[in-house]
């Protein structure tokens, strides 16, 4: 039984809360367990969030599988960074949010019942999204990538890799008036692409057949915009082949496993703009999350049908296994508390 204590956050607000919480701890590669850990206290300028859920991100796969540059055990709750929940405590000087506000957070230990975040790294969620999951970081990431793509109505865009990100980008591109060609490996992902509005779908299997198919679909012009969402070398080079002269090749995939060899001669000859659409400034992440709130509210983006698998915190090991193996029907997993 957790010990209960009364903590006063400011003279007007008091709350009863636990002194410990459950958190997932990645003790070694492919070995994760729940532990009882100390409840974090918000410092000045911070808030504590009683988490309702956290998305599972493919960028977590390397630390799950193990790489020589990681050390274990990983901090409790890490690398969860797609959390949302309800503010239950605030530190000194915080007036942007208050206990009871439902928020999406940019925090980094969210595979746990609670996490803390800087007060300027949370986004209040409107009543219209009450009861709905909202993994803010990936939703905001899709908005930032879409903005960086500078996609215009009437253009043709090829999107390579239809997972959660690719599917959201299809929705945004169609809303913007673009023609979308989706290229992906799994038959199921191609069905997801169609459901999200893709005009054409192509199986990612044969390099030259794909190039010829896109050439045929675009009357030999290829695509004004190509967005690579896989994080793999071959699709990145394929993306270059599919980009029209003076087009924009947008790198949205997370390339975190070493060097890449790319066809610079082709990129140079076609005069491509190559855009690394990743952000590192937290202010840009928060900007994207705010835009995502508006996009989901308005219906421009509908992530709910992409949340295909839900697990409890106790089932997080199974969630990671499925994240890695991607069984048929898998798009996006959520851990809910």
Topology:
Elements: E1 4-10, E2 13-18, E3 20-28, E4 31-38, E5 46-55, H1 61-65, E6 83-90, E7 102-105, E8 114-118, E9 122-124, H2 136-149, E10 156-160, H3 164-175, E11 179-184, H4 187-195, E12 200-203, H5 207-217, E13 223-228, H6 233-242, E14 243-251, H7 264-270, E15 273-276, H8 282-298, E16 307-312, H9 316-325, E17 332-336
Parallel strand pairs: 10-11, 10-13, 11-12, 13-14, 14-15, 16-17
Antiparallel strand pairs: 1-2, 3-4, 5-6, 5-8, 5-17, 6-7, 7-9
Question: How would you explain this protein's 3D organization?
Answer:
This protein is of the alpha/beta class. 28% of the residues lie in helices and 31% in strands. It contains 9 helices and 17 strands. The strands form 4 sheets. Strands 5, 6, 7, 8, 9, 16 and 17 form a 7-stranded mixed β-sheet that branches. Strands 12-11-10-13-14-15 form a 6-stranded parallel β-sheet, with helices on both faces. Helix 9 links the parallel strand 16 and strand 17. The longest helix has 17 residues.
